[in-house]
Design goal:
The structure is a single chain. The chain has 157 residues and is of the alpha+beta class. The protein has 2 domains: 75 residues, Beta-grasp domain (Ubiquitin-like (UB roll)); 69 residues, [2Fe-2S]-binding domain (DNA polymerase, domain 1, Orthogonal Bundle). Helices cover 33% and strands 16% of the residues. It contains 5 helices and 5 strands. The protein has a 5-stranded mixed β-sheet, sandwiched between helices. Helix 2 crosses helix 5. The protein is globular.
Amino acid sequence: MVLKHIELTVNGRSYADDVKPSRTLVEVLREDLGLMGTKCGCNEGECGACTVMMNGKTVTSCLVPAVQADGADILTVEGLADGDKLHPIQEAFVEAGAIQCGFCTPGFIMSTLALLRCFPHPTEEQIREGLAGNLCRCTGYQKIFQAVNLAAEKMAK
């Protein structure tokens, strides 16, 4: 079996790994690095649960071959908190009650981060468009939209 050597930076830490060319980034994050925050929901890039930032842009990590992440800078939901202090987006999701089962939450949080980097004070339309790649089966989205607005307020301070 042929393995490919990859090196990547995840949440500010350097990692090196030998991977099968068929493995995905989400598999490496969860199985090799133990970063369980990134979820794998559909394996088709449709649900957004596996959303991470790769070189500053959101990607559905279930569709990214790990070998394509060689040399990349990856940010996962675990990389947002500062020790025990949650990131303002994470705080907002908790405070707004935007978390029910929590499975989709990491992907929504990472998509919110990307959204707020582009639009620090997003309109409802921008929020809907920015989160369009993420699906939730529990919340009905209203609390998620409220969390995005609350996060925008927190990050503006």
